[in-house]
């Protein structure tokens, strides 16, 4: 039998022998690879719909708005301006359709397209006498189609078409919504209250400077930022969520590896006893984890690729920029990260196995528990469940730190999600005004909420796996101690409560730490996403996160603790 | 009058063809202050019998009475109370908590019983002095020899002032010198009237007992009462079959 076959056989057997652990490890790494895939697929997609819409509609580099046409026309000859259109007269009017009344901004346009800002009709036809064209996002909120009857300030119109434009930020990022009619029809509706003139600049990159130099001028970059705000927010949420999920995934792997350490050490001892070199042992361990990492990479790439288009939907006021796609380089990055995570899981047991003498490894020594004299002294004064809980927790401070960190991270992300949700809900409530379509959803906030919900669910699922794993590892690790406590007179309930307390103490710390951390994450993500306006966070709800976390951790950890506590005392002690 | 009594005690593992009867219809009575040694070949059910007597395992059939109370009918919580107040255990593998010092190990059962920490500490110190380890009270188990660890375990078994101390192969992991020290300790306990049930392979330990019970294939194979109750090694010569 070749060495490679032997390695493959040993790796496969061990994975089959520990299916549940292998499966959990697969989930932990797959969660990381999925979010990484999403992050890589979505990266840079945010600006594409705006760019494509600008290209398809001869989008202006700057848009000037003024009271009178005469005040705008000199801009057509301003230095740096190469082309212009209009000025187009505009007014605010009341739009009526199927009993709905909402304010609209109506522009008078020529029937022939201008040199700059030529809205692309996506349904129906362009404005004609008695026929209005409605901006696509606005039409979506109104649920109108070409041919439908509408009124503008009491004048009857038919919807001639639906179009997209880069000359104005789509509804509802900009209100009121936009309607194009012919110049003649606009005069019929009323006297124009403003004029709009799209401009083409010699240097589009200099548009912000041009806008700053001229009153009432807005650059395409500024409009783009508003038009793609939801995609940028999705980008920030995904970036933050990916990091959080990746860190949790690594925490899961660390707990699993720690939990398996004693077994692994014994197995290493066995392999060494039959003549395997330390290098061979390391290769077997690595092979196991690389197999899992590759499987997790496949799962992550498929899941991430399938989920990416669902997470990146530009405003319907913009042209779609095609599905997010994955390059070979991105796939390689995902595979490398998965292998690195799995490799990190292998290094410690491999080094430990190589360094430990065969006899010692065979006797399967677990790491000696830590001694914390002050905690032992303190716990002696506590009721029995807390005495046991503090002592159990104090035995493995690194595991407590890991549990606290991973829970704090989860709590922080949940708090950030609550803050975002509350912020959005309050702002949505404020959006009830004459410029907003009554009863229509806000597609901007809706999409961000969906992405955050998906990330939060993934995060909670991974955190739940992590909490169960930590409780399982702690219960197994302290099995001898808890059995001894029972032999010395502790009741099963005291022992169970003690193990629960060992989980709840870090959970308490994590939830107290997670609340301010979550708020900080939200403020940072909001600032990074360039969100404007005041923050409206539901602070009154946040303290509920602490008891909520404790309840969830208690419920999740109850099962592994009970399973381990049910093992007969005599059998556990006899096993030594 | 008996302090500990087993009636037709039975413990079975497995079923059908794989059925193993670890303890088979054992009747046993232990009087207050008596030292009973249980001997027999490996796998004959000695340790299982001790676990059944201490409520660490539940019997398949039969009865266990401790101070007039039936252990086999008690809930786990009630059994915990009995172990806390009426029983002390000494294990072959010592089973000391690695990260606790000798004194902290000894005071642990008292803390589990709700004894105030100061009182528990005082009692633990006194017991360590009694087993000759006062100067080792602050040492971790890893810093103690096998014999010292077992003496700490004996002190721990005594802190609840138990009616009966159950010891499972207390010298099984010890060298001769350490065995001698533990023997002396059991001798002094016996002299003080402490009831002891000791499972052992060690003839020297058995020789210190009032009675030696021999087990074979889970059942009692014989009982030997010793003249004068434990005269050390010399007493073996005076065995008296019942």
TrEMBL record, chain A:
Domain ABC3 transporter permease C-terminal: 244-356, 455-568
GO molecular function, one term: transmembrane transporter activity
Keyword Transmembrane: yes
Highest taxon of the lineage: Bacteria
Cellular compartment(s): Cell membrane
Cited Pfam families: FtsX, MacB_PCD
Keywords: Cell membrane, Membrane, Transmembrane, Transmembrane helix
Membrane topology field: Multi-pass membrane protein
Span of domain MacB-like periplasmic core: 25-214
Transmembrane segments: 237-259, 280-308, 328-351, 400-420, 451-473, 504-524, 536-559
InterPro entries assigned: ABC3_permease_C, MacB_PCD, Macrolide_Exporter_MacB
Family under the similarity heading: Belongs to the ABC-4 integral membrane protein family.
Protein name, UniProt field: ABC transport system permease protein
Originating species: Actinoallomurus iriomotensis
From TrEMBL, chain B:
Gene Ontology CC: membrane protein complex; plasma membrane
Keyword annotations: ATP-binding, Nucleotide-binding, Transport
Molecular function GO labels: ATP binding; ATP hydrolysis activity; transmembrane transporter activity
Domain ABC transporter: from-to ranges: 4-242
Alphabetical list of Pfam families matching this protein: ABC_tran
Gene3D superfamilies: P-loop containing nucleotide triphosphate hydrolases
Superkingdom of origin: Bacteria
Name the record gives this protein: ABC transporter ATP-binding protein
Source species: Actinoallomurus iriomotensis
